[in-house]
Amino acid sequence: QVQLVESGGGLVQAGDSLSLSCTASGRTLSSYDLGWFRQVPGKEREFVSAIGWSGGTTYYADSVKGRFFISRDNVKNTMYLQMNSLKPEDTAIYYCAARSRAWVVSRISTGYDSWGRGTRVTVSS
Questions:
Q1: Burial class (CB in 10 A: 0-12, 13-18, 19+), 54
Q2: Are 40 and 92 in contact (CB under 8 A)?
Q3: Largest CA distance in the chain
Q4: Which of 1, 36, 92, 98 is spaced 20 to 30 Å from 74 by Cα?
Q5: How far apart are CA 103 and CA 13, in angstroms?
């Protein structure tokens, strides 16, 4: 399995931007579809965004569409999530996830089998 480590979380104000990174080790990321999920304590983990192995296919949750942008650099073995116009409801722990590349990029958490430990994002109003 690939090992994933998220970074870039922090405390920001509403309207600010933040960029998250997910760096992989153990395997080359070009063999994997990747996703970002987030979770608030007491709630289910929810889909944020996903990107296919080549970067040519991307998906976003309706709640972040137009504000968040996912990208990847397979040479650097890293995935990114640029988060703009942050809102207090974006506050959560953000996790990156990986699964072996497939015909369809998954948008559900059970579709992924490798996970990072998460990075906390807090947006104050």
A1: exposed
A2: yes
A3: 40
A4: 92
A5: 39
Tell me how long the chain is: 125
Please answer whether residues 17 and 9 qualify as being in contact, where contact means their C-beta atoms are separated by less than 8 angstroms: no
| Pairing of the two strands 10-13 and 58-60 | unpaired
Cα 90 to Cα 70, 75, 84, 102: the distances in Å are 15, 29, 11, 29
Local structure of residue 108 (DSSP, 8 states):
S
Please give the span between the terminal C-alpha atoms of the chain, in angstroms, as a whole number: 39
- Distance of alpha carbon 34 from alpha carbon 96, whole angstroms: 7
What pLDDT, on the 0 to 100 scale, is given for residue 26? Answer: 85
Residue recorded with tokens 């995935």 = 79
Q: What six digits make up the tokens of 122?
A: 């807090």
Per-residue pLDDT of the chain (125 residues; tens, 9 = 90+): 899 999 999 999 999 999 999 999 888 888 899 999 999 999 999 999 999 999 999 999 999 999 999 999 999 999 999 999 999 999 999 999 999 988 889 999 999 999 999 999 999 99
